[in-house]
Amino acid sequence: MTTTQPDPAAGAAVKAADRAHVFHSWSAQGLIDPLPIAGAEGSYMWDYEGNRYLDFSSQLVNTNIGHQHPKVVAAIQEQAGKLCTLAPGFAVDVRSEAARLIAERTPGDLDKIFFTNGGAEAVENAVRMARLHTGRSKVLSTYRSYHGATAAAINLTGDPRRWPSDTASAGVVHFWGPFLYRSPFHAENEQQECERALRHLEDTIAFEGPQSIAAIILETIPGTAGIMVPPPGYLAGVREICDRYGIVFILDEVMAGFGRTGRWFAADHFDVTPDLMTFAKGVNSGYVPLGGVAISAEIAATFDKRPYPGGLTYSGHPLACASAVATINAMAEERIVENAAEIGENVIGPALKDIAERHPSVGEVRGMGVFWALELVKNRETHEPLVPYNASGADNAPMAQFAAACKERGMWPFLNMNRTHVVPPCTVTETEAKEGLAALDEALTVADAHTV
Fold this sequence. Notes:
By secondary structure, the chain is an alpha/beta fold.
């Protein structure tokens, strides 16, 4: 592995320039202290002080193929030498090939691909397509969800990042999805949770008026909101409800797609085909910004003679599409999706269950593939979260201390509220996974100190 020699002066210069000119997302600008990163490769990244970190966050759960995969880097370089950019109205080989490779892997007849620059724009366009296809306005989404930060996507989002931008006039209705550990339905098992969640959704539709609802959008497995794997039968039940009322079913696979769960798409675990599917992140591990919508034949036909009123200057950008082609081919050739499944089943899953038994701060372990969450609690009996909902400042101190303990042990975690997510690249090796899990095991003693 190539690493740079420690160069604290260079790191200080990078940080100074960042603080002078870069405006960071989701942050109070005067309260953040971004770590300057000198480089990354595979499952690791390192700073200018010479500290190396195992990236157990996959950045924002997007570097599914790891950092600096040589085949993807080479494809970008080759495409740059051939054709850097081309407007979306033209046909270009690499764009067509990317679309073909994606369509080959999507479920059912999701064979038309509309390219965007990322996941939020994919959600924006999927919702627009659903509204135009049905002639209806309302869209239903769950409270425990994240769909992006653009206008429609942030209103669809259920978590508190929505609150500052929520106008209550975007045609969005939120409902409770299934989550047995914190069941809003007082369920005692997965079957009850599934049945009651579907009944709640039906009631919501009835009171909102089914004739007014264009779409239901769900993360196949919610990501940042907690990696809650839906109970058996739930997604099939939503599919049946959508069919009954003529509602478009949208699955958001931005985080769960392209190998993250040990299948090409999380929908493959549940044998469910939506009408529209959004993707981004793992399609090319974010090497160049790219996202999109996979579209069913019926919805695509809506726009055969009627212009689709949407587009992006960089839709299907050649450099992004070249990186997607290389990524998908490398994932197939190197069995990267299979690796994610095997590591999850044989290494991560068993280790996390063992860790949970030994740490009173771990209330629940859930996930699959390289897509896992640990619910951290103060009290296992009451399920009281380790920190309050949407905690910040002093209230969030237990999670901040836990994160610091992970980083001190050379593991970069992914945290959200009272959860830590175990989401390494799909290329993670057994040795690397065990290294990260050992660091997690040690760091959890810090969380344990806050339990009662």
